[in-house]
Amino acid sequence: MKTEKLPLIGLDRFKEHPEHVTYMDENIAVIDSLTEVLKLNENAVKLDCFMMVFCQEGNINVHINGKSYLLQKDYCAILPPGTVLRRVLSNQTYNIKIAAASQNFLNNILRANIKETWEIIHYLYNHPIHPVKPSGSYKMYLYKELLINLIQEEPHIYSKQTRRFHFAGMFCEMMALLNKSIPTTNRHEINSNRSTLIARDFMELVNADNGSHRSVSYYADRLYYSPKYLSSTIKQVTGKSPLQIINEHAIQEIKFKLKHSTLSMKEMADFFDFPNPSFFGKFVKAHTGMAPLQYRLSEKKEE
User: For burial by CB atoms within 10 Å, which of 55, 191, 227, 247 has the most?
Assistant: First the structure.
């Protein structure tokens, strides 16, 4: 029996609530609500984007990765992809701003610093709350204020590029500050478990997928690694190549659908994101020894 999957929240969710969107393009977004947009008082969600939640007034209690945290004025919750958010509670009025970026946008920025990025993201899992007030990080405070100013100003022909590069600069500055703040003991612990954690994160992504993505590059991008590095790590930990694991999961999903649905081969190919039924048929035959329709009929006979 499959467990219920948490809904993934990416930038597309913000389009559903334009009344709370201060700025948005295909790479970044700035919004002014956490509970209304993510509906955290109703459900738990998993982030499919990088999010920074700035508290400008008051304070709120946020449940992050199974722990409760108090987010107060001049502090920021830094939440990488994969973060699980649950309820938000507050006994007073609060004012927040949320800056979010897509995974693709950040992948392009972070490729040159894979090792450091991995350490920071795993550190953030248990240490999501950080100061942004001048006494804590003056440059982050200035970055945040300038971002708000750039969004509120009258648009010009380079507004989109200016906001994008400024956000990239703010993000890199934040990551550099976080890298300095990781204690040596935490860094040793992170590195000692690195391969196992990479394999775990990879398996979680594969299991959460419906067999729609069958390339190592797709998962390498999601995990901020090169395909070569991901392949060698997964092989080391599991004894299998990542492509073998991906295909094994995909064919199990396909077999289940062939047996328990009435979808046509064209609909099946579309459902699993194959370019056409011919590619779908070749994939199924390569892994089962039978064409899709033949496999479906053979399963029906055994019932």
Answer: 55
Burial class of residue 2 in the structure, from the number of CB atoms within 10 Å of its CB (0-12 exposed, 13-18 middle, 19+ buried): exposed
pLDDT, position 291: 92
Torsion, Cα 162 163 167 169, to 10 degrees, reads 10
Cα 269-275-280 angle, rounded to 5 deg? 45
pLDDT digits (tens, 9 = 90+) for 107-153: 778 766 766 777 788 788 888 999 887 665 777 778 878 888 888 88
Report the relative pairing of strands 59-64 and 67-72 from DSSP bridges.
antiparallel
CA nearest to 33, candidates 12, 48, 53: 53
Task: Give CA 31 to chain center in angstroms.
Answer: 18
Task: Judge residue 68's burial from the number of C-beta atoms within 10 Å of its C-beta, 0-12 exposed, 13-18 middle, 19 or more buried.
Answer: exposed
And the tokens for 136?
Answer: 């804590």
Q: Model's pTM, two decimal places? A: 0.61
Positive/negative CA dihedral, 215, 219, 220, 221: positive
